[in-house]
Amino acid sequence: MDSDLNPQGWIWWPEREDLSLEFMRLLASAQEGGATFSECWLTASRVDSADDDSWHREWTVTAEVNRERASSAVAQGHPATARSSWLRAVNYYLTAAYPSDLSPDRRRSAIASMRECAANYLNCREPVGEVVSIPWLSEFTLQGYYLPACPSRDPAPVVICIGEPGHHKEEFLFKLARHASERGMALLAVDVLGDGTGQSFEEVSLRHKPQRAIAPIMDYLVGRDDVDERRIAILADGWSSSFVARGIAFDHRFAAAVCDGGIWDLHMRSFLNPQNRPFGIEPCPESEADRILRSIRCPLLVAASERGGLKEDRIAELTDRLRAGRRDRDITVEIFGGSEPAAGQGRFDNPTLANEFIFDWIASRIGARPLYNRA
User: Fold this and answer.
1) 29-78: per-residue pLDDT in tens?
2) What is the 3-state secondary structure (H, E, C) of 122-153?
3) Which of 13, 149, 265, 340 is such that its CA lies 20 to 30 A from the CA of 74?
């Protein structure tokens, strides 16, 4: 494929901007253990832009190489190597499933393989992780991955990591899990895509709002003996949806939240047309959005990017509305500037810098302590 450098210094394919962005995400994930640079470059060099199936085929090959490497490491008693290889396989299968024009059968196959690798990673992890089912709707069960904190006599603080609708939770295993573990927190990675055994999220979203999934997720954690229910935070990874803000606005059990606080609803409500609404999810009317903004009681971090969907002055204007009438509210606004490598939309160009800041903020609000400070 012909390539070039864009102004931010990333390789891209002008004829496929979507795949260029996915390749950027993949390269950035290497520093978190989700890929290796050499595998990314070698695989990309084999992709033929004239062959519609080439992207899926080549990334699947690379995923299967890592899957086989992980199985071999397990058989030889090398769990650390197995964990690393499982995580890379998860990410490469996710990349293989990415193209919007991929056939449904191939996408389902890639996602199924990705989930199998994720489950194998959890089994190799120390302490061992769990694949959990969270009741939500009678016909739709949520699937999550629970990664316990290091063993302790006391219940642990937990951070819920959830992406915007359409986002796969498996990415959190290499993108966010390390940051939680190093700060003494357990992590629950969850998405609203279901367990894959019943109806699709697209079908369910026509009749149910995704923000209603937040309370059942909290209910699940509160019911665990190893969780400190007073120290549960939530992190919404992504910027284009306010469903997490809507979900926590009237559930006051959260100790801290990282999300847009509902300001995306305020910004988009006036001109977002039906064709651009993901899965048919509509922004709130302004009066309801204001009510949501002012109903969030827990400490809130709004983490945005200068090259993201909203300009800095617009973010400042909207966050002022969060503080309206309550100047004592604990609201932090962090905007990663254009000179920083985490300034791209969703911070996917360099997630590490943003996640270090975000998890430090969460730890300071819920009282989590880094492992090296523990007695």
Assistant:
1) 999 999 999 999 999 999 987 787 999 999 999 999 999 999 999 999 99
2) HHHCCCCCEEEEEEEECCEEEEEEEECCCCCC
3) 149
Q: How far apart are CA 293 and CA 296, in angstroms?
A: 6
Both tokens assigned to 330: 């604990």
- As a residue count, the chain comes to 375
**Rounded CA separation 277/263 (Å):** 16
Q: Are 230 and 155 in contact (CB under 8 A)?
A: no
Residue type, 202: E
Q: Which residue in the block uniquely carries the two structure tokens 């939500």? A: 136
Single-letter amino acid, residue 181:
S
pLDDT at residue 222 in the model: 97
- For the stretch 189-219, pLDDT in tens is 999 887 776 656 666 666 678 888 999 999 9
CA distance 206 to 326: 36
Q: State the DSSP string of 64-94.
A: HHHHHHHHHHHHTT-HHHHHHHHHHHHHHHH
Q: Residue 322 has which token pair?
A: 């969060």
Separation CA 55–CA 43 (nearest Å): 9
